[in-house]
Amino acid sequence: MSKSLALLIASLLLTALAACNTVQGVGRDIESVGRAGKDAMH
């Protein structure tokens, strides 16, 4: 079971990275999530 879980996590991470294309894109995505959370709290 742990192999299938590791494979699932790796697949999700690769999909997320492919969607962002670059490390900078990942940073922008994380920043936008943080802003959305901050706006929701206020």
From TrEMBL:
Signal peptide coordinates: 1-18
GO CC term, one of those recorded: membrane
Keyword annotations of the record: Cell membrane, Lipoprotein, Membrane, Palmitate, Signal
Source taxon at top rank: Bacteria
InterPro entries membership: Entericidin (IPR012556)
Keyword Cell membrane: yes
One Pfam family in the UniProt entry: Entericidin
GO BP, one annotated term: response to toxic substance
Family according to the record: Belongs to the EcnA/EcnB lipoprotein family.
Protein name: Entericidin
Organism: Sphingobium cupriresistens LL01
